[in-house]
Amino acid sequence: MSSKVLVVADHDGSKLNAGTARAVKAASTVPGAEVHVLVLAADGAAVAAAAAELAGVSKVLVANRAENTHLMAAVLAPQVVEIAAGYTHVFGPSSSFGKDLMPRVAALLGVGQVSDLMSVEGTHTFKRPIYAGNAIITVESPADQKVVVTVRTASFEAAATGGSAAIEAVSTSAALPSHTRFVGVQSAKSDRPDLQSAAKVVSGGRALGSKEQFSLVFGLADQMGAAVGASRAAVDAGYAPNELQVGQTGKIIAPELYLAVGISGAIQHLTGIKDAKTIVAINKDPEAPIFEVADIALVADLFVAVPELQAALKAG
Amino acid sequence: MRRILVGIKRVVDYSVRVRVKPDGTGVALDGVKMSINPFDEIALEEALRIKERGEADEVVAISIGTDDTQQQLRTALAMGADRALLVKSDEAVDPLTAAQVFTAMAKAEDARLVIVGKQAIDDDANQTGQMLAALWDRPQATFASKVEIIGDMLRVTREVDAGLETLEVDLPAVITVDLRLNEPRYVKLPDIMKAKKKPLEVKSFADYGVAPTQRLKATHYAAPATRSKGIVVKDVAELVDALKKKGLV
Asked: Is this prediction's ipTM beyond 0.90?
């Protein structure tokens, strides 16, 4: 039996979220898969056009409904279930969007979900992390049931662009609930690279000591063209906003360079960065667990080392 | 009665570094410290605060697990839950089974609100709350960092990738909690004594009409790939050289 994979697109109404291209890549590793992308939106034309360019996608479905202006799981799930009828697999990225939506879809379908897919081993065999990444489990899902998956995006490259899939409008008749209403979203607008997809990330921990001093991390990141991340301790202490948290319960990332400043490296943090190509750690405690995973380690007071690093980078 | 159900899962304590058994059949759990899933503690704390504000009448801690799970439910009672329900299971249950049990409990208890942790730190699935909301056909407000009850609805701030999103949902509803919603209280000794007298009922899957099913079969456990040992640089100049060599600056 051939596999048909439906990838639910994460987007903001106008742009495709970077995680979607990685979920498409993951979907294309399912043996014999035909990959379609589903865009649920009020007006999904721009997002669909972007999805159609992703390599490996053979068709993009656009479900335009006024109720899809803001992406809410309770409203989207019945539509996904309806459209998923002809598919063997339904994939979504492990973004906050996918984590919210996909289990609701799975429950409506009466099937289990493979969370945080790391690799596809067969049409119904998958690997995923448990215990904050301390163990990797291989799971088999029943061959006669639909497979619902969220994709650990750090485990997959983004699908290349240059494709030209057909775009097709689909309509759904599912009754949608009115019990869930969007009020607003508060984002720290910034021109910095997006943490989830940035090639370089500079991340700060509790040792920064205050919100004011955390600006040292922002300054270094800006100089390097990097995104900013933070440890849970730094976010809990209010030094950095929640959307910058990296780790088991925050964002899982795989940049080319991860520069950890004043981060001790709790296991929950390390699980969020272990796919980084190069990890650099600056910490004054030589026993800090971050040094066990660091490719380049500098034992130093960050308040001395970071300004020195900035000066050195400026000098070229 | 305005009743809140709170999901409590017994898990390996967050401070334990779990290791895979050499034969790949599972993880070594003999004798390790067990605790309430930290996210569930936050869920319970929120329920208790809602009750203390006079916006709920009863908080019920609910769980599925072995007899030993009674320890975690007693802790929940000591924190302030009024009573507890345990569906006995010698096997770990999958999130959909847990959601089926919780849905049946929500209906049987006429719950106004069910609060659970956003994920359990053992299987890291992040599914049960969303699945419960789907099966119960009620709203879900996941990854909550702020919860207000306004009449017959909730206003919930959620931690999402873009920042903080606010939703309004009609009650009854399901909330899954994130780390920064609150700081759970410490249990005091007199409360531990009092908790021994609070009702803890042990139930079966059949009581809730659920047949437990493992939909995903675990076939192998492996230790994660380790990173090779890096280099130690003695100062910033050496660091910059090392970064340049890798073409990173």
From this structure: yes
